[in-house]
Amino acid sequence: MASWGEASESRLIGKRIPRLSGKDKVTGKAKYTFDINRPGMLYGRILRSEVAHANVVDLDLSEAEAMPGVKAVLPLVEVGRKIRYQGQEIAAVAAETDDIARDAIRRIRVDLEELPSVVTEADAMAENAPQIREDWVGNQSAPNVREEGDINAGFEQAAVEVEATYHAPVQTHVCLETHGHVAEWEDDENLTVWASTQGVFGVRNDLAGRFNLPANQVRVITEHMGGGFGSKFGPGVEGRTAADLARTTGRPVKLMLTRKAEHLVAGNRPSMTQHVRAGATSDGRIIAYDMKGYGTGGISSGAGFQAPYVYHVPNVRAERRNVTVNVGNQRAMRAPGHPQGAFAMDSLMDELAEKLGMNPLEFRRINDPSEVRQAQYTLGAQEIGWHRRNSVPGSGTSVKKHGIGVGSGQWGGGGGDGTQARVTINADGTVEAVTGTQDIGTGIRTAIAIIVAEELGLNPTDITVKVGDSGPGLPSGGSGGSQTTASVAPVIKTAAAAAKQKLFQRVAPQLEAPVEDLRVGNRTIYVVSDRTKTIKWELATGQLGMESISEGGHWDRELRQGGVAGTQFAEVEIDTETGAISVIKIVAVQDCGLAINRLTTESQINGGVIMGLGQALLEERFMDAQTGRMLNANLEDYKVPGTFEIPEIKSIVFDTHRKVTGVGEPPCIPTPGAIANAVYNAIGVRIRSLPITPDKILTALAEKKA
Amino acid sequence: MPDKDKEKKQGTNISRRNFLKGVGTGTVAATVAPSVLIGSEKAAEAQTEEAVASATIQLNINGKPYQVEVEARTTLLTVLRDGIDTSGTNIDLTGAKLICDRGECGGCTVMIDGKTVYACMMLAMDAQDKQITTVEGLADGDDLHPVQEAFVQHDALMCGFCTPGFVVSSAALLSENTKPTLEDIKVGLSGNTCRCGTYPFIFDAVKTASRKM
Asked: Of A24, A603, A642, which has the smallest distance from its Cβ to B201's Cβ?
């Protein structure tokens, strides 16, 4: 049975190893899609609607087309069709410089007949609201209902009940490299696209389909990419437009979204509003949970969220609806549906515990079926100093008040079949690992090098890793669902093992030992039963001559496992005069399975916590209900965490087993709930709506006083 | 610099004031023109060729002189990334990134005479007569700047898109304050934004680099 071996046997796996792309990234050498400059390249821009709902009456491209330096202008909407959200594409331009392209889109004349729009969930659900989707009644989807047990019977057993409404607003991804592509046609039938994507092969297949080309005549390259968080799986309108503009002009075209368009059309995390009534027994068991909720994913659907979450509830009724509004569509965002669901559930848990007069951690211990999290509660409580929390929330007379809270999460991340890879050993001793996955910042490139180096007794820097290119024709899935490492690692490991086996077969006769007795370490192949029999790595590979060893691998299920649990503890300080909230410390205990690279795994946990902190305290998409325009489609009014917001973060890689699991998404899940509970513990007033901002704190404190 | 050289240099230089003056009439024409010239080629010309006058300026980037033709509106960042030297070579210094496009995120941070500047907010002509240092100019050949070395060692980067800006800001911070406290580091890097959440390891990296400087 395949295995990663014991920790004590691992020379590299599980250690802290700087990422291979580090040097290129700190020197500015790393080339992102945005950095690609091709000979003769044109710059593309897209004109977008500022109106949220309208009929397109007329579109005149002639003025833009006539401008010097403009090489192509393409319509992206037909006269007679509808605009359904701000930011929807109207036309695209390719020009000699980006400035000319910007000038040119201002010269496109579009005549829009404005239609009544709905922008907020409340407006969409109001009586007599304009109906913006013909297939839905009242701008709402049919409810998705989940029922387990008998909630009426459950409530009869309840000693306490809590009824509350929790809300999380729409959040946007804010990828620092906006969505974008550079498209170049070699001839009519061969297209190369540099794409800022989480799915090299997804983009390839989409574009091949659009242009009716064999898939291998479209090559997609993503050497480095500047953040996706779930929003970058396909080429989208902008990628297809870049390819169209390049085809029309016969020149390479770079088309990157503007920062504003990135907020408007490149996806977002749907909102969540849930009204929940829940009951617990006197001995601390949640016994009944009745929830009605909705969220909006914009013009389409996809606004699901987890409710109830993580904890065991025997009697459940949960009803969820999608609400449609005239706003750009949602896309998957880091652990879709989980952080907002966790925030509501963990808030509810604390509210129930308080009614029972129980310690919230004890209440969780009773209701949490996860053995892993049970152990994490103990470790996390120790690390944060749980005993220091206010036994009476909000007690104390000082202006600045401290509080401590806890939150939980879970995720899959077990990977999937479908990755192909090759590990090649060349005669000169060099080793290459090639696969079609992409490094979206998680460090999979380095993980691959670690795995191959461990198997072949080399160092990670000895391995040339080629990812982010569909050219070699070795497909791998998109980097989503925290699936990349668990999908890729087993294939790389088995490929490296197969290549090693081939090399051993080659040298076994010289070493006068059976292949099974051969081992490799420290650039030397040796016989395990007689260590005087050795051959240096380069001498062994030197015998390959012209024929290098090149082996594929397979997705061995035994090498990976899904299902991770996580717990976080937060300590906050609140200035009760200004409402200012500082997170002092977060302890993140994250089940990671086998962490191939402990250093980059810690980076992932830090990153998840910080994104969760942003959701908890800062991030909210503001829409103007009258005009349907986003009011903070930039980086100064849409707040993401900066240096001042960063607390002490203790990221604990919680080892559970030695099988590979993905961990990109789960660490962002427990954070908002932990912070919300810490805020309550500090001031004794519950904020049930994210983000928890100073104005909400001050209002709540004032209401408490009154 | 000897006075003679200074004079000579100024002689070929174009001040921002004169540049904008020269462009001024064209700009007015462009704003007036469309109401009478809609759809005509002349309107287009008014905005592109007459209004947006260009001039050749010299920029000193990472110790090397470049001659580039720029428009009044051309930012330093555009020149670094997309500029073409009059000799025909692409400048191609793409380390500095355009991220927010309005001086909020620090992705385009470069040093001008040792002080950090957002290259997206500086007109190229305002960078004449100054020493411009980009992230590409920090390392000494293969020898990384201590900040760069520490960033790699501590994994102070993930996707890496904001990294050049953070590296330049960190180097500038340490050139002014060789022993910064955590608070100093947070203040010094407060003009830079990271979305992957690499801050904790960036703080560690700056501390490590400070010990080596």
From this structure: A603
Q: Residue A383: which pLDDT band, with cuts at 50, 70 and 90?
A: very high
- Is residue B13 very low, low, confident or very high in pLDDT (cuts 50, 70, 90)? low
CB proximity B133 to A under 8 Å? no
Is the distance from CB of A570 to CB of A674 less than 8 angstroms? yes
Contacts of A266 in chain B (CB under 8 A): none
pLDDT given at position B53: 81
A409 and A540 part of one domain: no
- Tally the domains of chain A: 3
Please, are residues B160 and A25 in contact by the beta-carbon 8 Å criterion? yes
B194 lies within 8 A of chain A by CB: yes
A459 with A475, same domain: the answer is yes
Confidence of residue A468 (pLDDT cuts 50, 70, 90): very high
Q: Which domains does chain B have, with CATH numbers?
A: 146-212 (1.10.150.120)
| A331 and A424 co-located in one domain | no
Dump pLDDT digits (tens) for B47-70: 444 456 889 999 999 999 999 999
Of A67, A177, A225, the CB nearest to B48: A67
Residues A68 and A214 occupy one common structural domain:
yes
One domain for residues A250 and A320? no
Q: Are residues A696 and A591 in the same domain?
A: yes
Quick check: A407 and A677 in contact, CB under 8 A? yes
- pLDDT greater than 50 at residue A157: yes
pLDDT, tens only, A656-685: 999 999 999 999 999 999 999 999 999 999
Q: Which domain holds residue A440?
A: 7-30+415-559
For residue A483, pLDDT over 50 is answered with yes
By percentage, how much of chain A surpasses pLDDT 90? 98
- Whether A162 is in a domain gets the answer no
Q: What is the ipTM of this complex?
A: 0.97
Q: B2 to chain A nearest CA, in Å?
A: 35
- In degrees rounded to 5, what are phi and psi of residue B123? -70, 145
Question: Are residues A549 and A503 located together in one domain of the fold?
Answer: yes
pLDDT the model gives residue B16: 54
Residue B21 confidence (pLDDT) above 80: no
Q: Is the pLDDT of residue B2 over 90?
A: no
A20 touches chain B (CB under 8 A): no
Q: Output the pLDDT for position A134.
A: 87
Backbone phi and psi for residue B203, each to the nearest 5 degrees, phi listed first:
-60, -45
Helix axes A671-683, A338-356, angle to 10 degrees: 30
End-to-end CA distance of chain B: 29
pLDDT for the residue numbered A2: 86
The alpha helices in A589-653, defined as continuous H runs, are: 598-617
> Which residue has 């659009």 as its token pair?
A210
Question: Has residue A603 been placed in a domain?
Answer: yes
- The per-residue pLDDT for range B188-202, each reduced to its tens digit, is 999 999 999 999 999
What is the per-residue pLDDT for B52?
60
Has residue A90 been placed in a domain? yes
User: In angstroms, rounded to a whole number, what is the distance separating the alpha carbons of residues A140 and A126?
Assistant: 11
Work out whether strand A253-256 and strand A42-48 pair parallel, antiparallel, or are unpaired: parallel
Q: Are A507 and A543 in contact (CB under 8 A)?
A: yes
**How many angstroms separate the CA atoms of B185 and A103, rounded?**
40
Nearest to B158 among A66, A175, A603 (CB): A603
Find all residues with CB under 8 Å of A345, minimum gap 6, and list them.
Answer: A306, A307, A308, A309, A310, A311, A673
CATH number of the domain residue A437 falls in: 3.30.365.10
Distance, in Å, from the CA atom of A619 to the CA atom of A613, rounded to the nearest integer, reads 9
Return residues 667-696 of A near B (CB < 8 Å): none
CA of A95: how far to CAs of A72, A193, A251, B55, B70, in Å? 7, 18, 10, 20, 17
**A480/A550 same-domain check:** yes
Interface of A with B in 41-80 (CB under 8 A): 60, 62-63, 66-69
